[in-house]
Amino acid sequence: MSKKKKTLRTAAGQPWADNNHSLTAGKRGPVLMQDYQLIEKLAHFDRERIPERVVHAKGAGAQGVFVLTHDMSKYTKADIFNGKKGKKTPMMARFSEVAGEAGYPDTVRDVRGFALKFYTRDGNYDIVGNNTPVFFINDPLKFPDFIHSQKRDPQTHLRSQDMQWDFWSHSPESCHQVTYLMGDRGLPASYRNMNGYGSHTFKWVNKDGQVYWVKYHFHTQQGVKNMSAATAAKIAGEDTDYFIKDLYDAIAHKNYPTWKVYVQIIPYEAGMHYKHDIFDVTKVVSKKDYPLHEVGYFTLNKNPDNYFDDVEEAAFSPANLVPGVEASPDKLLQGRLFAYKDAERYRLGVNFENLPVNRPHNVKHPANYEQDGFMAEHQGHQVNYEPNGENGPVEDHAAKIKPYDVSGKADSYDTYAPDYYSAAGALYRLYPKAEQDRLIETLKSTLGTVKSHTTKVLETRQFYHADHEYGERVAKALGLDMSEIKGK
Ligand code: HEM
């Protein structure tokens, strides 16, 4: 017995008689203006695209669950990290590449985004990190310039080794992250096979008001795996969506990927006097000094029902913090607190937080006095000003941030200078010999193709400052004279 099919309706709910033949004035006549269904269909189609993310445009996402294994209430009052072993919080993740557009091949050398959204009982908590523990720059003023150098040349519309190396060679703080990116981790085998990092130092506050600095680490339980440059290039030519497919297929086959969640915990005063500035996101805090503490794990176990609804419309922001987690004075983080929601208001519209994927699970709208704007919905009947005598929502003083001291003169400080290189040198020395060899090969095939001799010299000089052997090997691979590298 065949099921009765749903009938076609217009967006306004009217029955739709013909979805194949336009209304014409006679058999050979022009199409009629009266064909409102044709006009609506074309008009809606014409508006299907929204702006892609200005960075991290290409990505894959899934839903899952975070499970707490260790009560962290000694360090933070954040509900998600407080309670009994086994406490669950729903979440979603989106992994991405940074520089390519939405259709770019997945397997090109790039940092990968590692964005997590936890739907906690205190609202949404986002950790918007990468698959590397550090970043190229540490001041938000430099971010648009950095990204311009990664994206397309305004004249040729081509991506350019000249532009990116020009920027990096004049930004010595990038040396550590460049050494990561040009190493094996610049080409992960899949999104499932990479670790994630919150990268910045964040502030945890417990119920007694004590402050700890923390750094997040997410360890893949699938094992860290990378691919060779030759394999990556081959796949890029055959399957541009290799990573999206890999994640989707694994979840579809119930092979759910899992990451363990760890934090480094740094007591407040010790953090303020650490051997380098812990708010400089171009550096790591040694695990020998502050070892990893296990917090829990998360598992991705549900593919999107609809990619656009569940992944493209997902809006992450480092400003999505919950009581118990606060921003640190890391300047790059401070800049990010503004940029994401601003980008999302532009990309998705002012009411983007009402979209199902972004809607907090703990709040029934409306819960504040913001109103209207494009695509407002479910506003209901509620007083729209405060103070009021109408039983509108009131402040929750328990959510106040922990007050902190600031001092000094307002100025444009070069806060994190001058140690740009020691961390890059330590990373180079950490690489096994074979990885060092691949790193030099990669630098030869990227930096080596740059037109400007000065760029090559400046960049190689950075590597030399990081580690003499590192610089000497790059110079040799690029055919540069060491007297120029040692120059200044
Ligand atoms: C001042 C520095 C930075 C600025 C201004 C910035 C800005 C942005 C903007 C505007 C977006 C697009 C947001 C959207 O349309 O939804 C974005 C996406 C993203 N950024 Fe940043 N970013 C910065 C640094 C960083 C750093 C340091 C990390 C990692 C540690 C990072 C990780 C990400 C990730 C993972 C995404 C993609 C989120 C998603 O999957 O939707 N960004 N960034």
From TrEMBL:
Positions with a binding annotation for heme: Y340
Class of this enzyme: oxidoreductase
Keywords: Heme, Hydrogen peroxide, Iron, Metal-binding, Oxidoreductase, Peroxidase
EC number(s) stated in the UniProt entry for this protein: 1.11.1.6
InterPro entries: Catalase, Catalase_AS, Catalase_clade1/3, Catalase_core, Catalase_haem_BS, Catalase_immune_responsive, Catalase_sf
Residues of the active site: H56, N130
Cofactors that this protein relies on: heme
Annotated Catalase core domain residues: 9-394
GO cellular component: cytoplasm
SMART domains the UniProt entry points to: Catalase (SM01060)
Region (Disordered): 1-24
SUPFAM superfamilies (alphabetical): Heme-dependent catalase-like
Catalytic activity: 2 H2O2 = O2 + 2 H2O
Domain of life according to the entry: Bacteria
Biological processes annotated in GO: hydrogen peroxide catabolic process; response to hydrogen peroxide
Pfam families named in the record: Catalase (PF00199), Catalase-rel (PF06628)
MF terms (GO), sorted A to Z: catalase activity; heme binding; metal ion binding
Record family assignment: Belongs to the catalase family.
Name this polypeptide is given: Catalase
Organism: Acetilactobacillus jinshanensis
Phylogenetic lineage: Bacteria, Bacillati, Bacillota, Bacilli, Lactobacillales
